[in-house]
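Why do we care about 3D structure at all? Because function follows from shape, and shape follows, mostly, from sequence. That is the central idea of this module. The next example makes it concrete: a single protein chain, its amino acid sequence, and then its structure expressed as tokens.
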Amino acid sequence: MNVDVDTAGCEVSWFSALCDDDYAQLGVHDPSLRSSLEHCGDIVRTAQTAGFDNVLLPSGYALGIDTIAFAAAMAPIIERMRMLVAVRCGEMWVPQLARQLATLDQMLGGRLTVNIISSDMPGQELASAPRYRRTLEVMTALRELLDGRRVDVDGEFVQLHIEPPRVGTVSRRCPPLYFGGLSDDAREVAAAAADVYLMWPDTLAGVASVLHDMRARAERHRRTLRFGYRVHVIVRETESDARAAAAHLVAALDDDEGARIRARSLDSQSVGVRRQAELREAASLDGFIEDHLWTGIGRARSGCGAALVGDPDQILATLHAYQKLGIEAFILSGYPHRDEAEWFGRLVLPHLRHAPLHP
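And the structure:
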């Protein structure tokens, strides 16, 4: 191990595949890896044992089990790790959502974080601009209620005249709100209302460009943002072993099946998804867009579509490069999720000086 990465203040999180998104080989369905309390709970327990700071619990109506119900089931077994619970705006009335999240935070001893998703509601389609207006209204009202303040608003989507719920968070403040999106509308919502702006994989130059833009937007709102990076990882003792594991992951993938998997997501036509496709199209024949950023994983994913691939030193050096740009939180995943959490937890995580982003 040759690379020493200074990650003071850097949050390192894992991903629990609640959305029927776990494979030993992409496109090859294994009933034992389907979303369930038992399987996804194993991923969460593995992440905690490995030493991760947080765990993302994704949300998808048509896929997998319910996020908040699962988080409540996991809360009693989580001793120190945070939970990043994904919430799709509009699926629940804001006062009820505030009470639910405050209850979860109480169950977790104040360790709740929230990933706000701006997507269509199940069975409904809404154009991008009004959808993001709805998201901003929801985020604003939710923060007010979880900060313990009365809300009086007559918005386009949220009409509320209500006191905050009696049950509040442990801190009596709104948990940190994580939010991502590449469209102009999404970036403005993040600049105005998010605590942590999340990015999907991109080149170092691409990451730098987005962070520069987001800092300027946040400054116009008289705010500051922190930045997170959502990416898959495949790490092995040697680079050749890591690349072999990446090749094996897609060896049985049929292109038609990959297209079907990508199309299942409610967000499959977003600007961010299109950017992931652009990276795949610009990559080398073996799928690498940069030395250790492999886009092959996006052949069967609509969203986060690239992986860091390499030996421990290479992965650490790449994380360090992102940190130099301003990334303070990494949300990692890999296939199958329990096994890859163990690989990363053994080979990389002990060499990271990391701490939760929000003490």
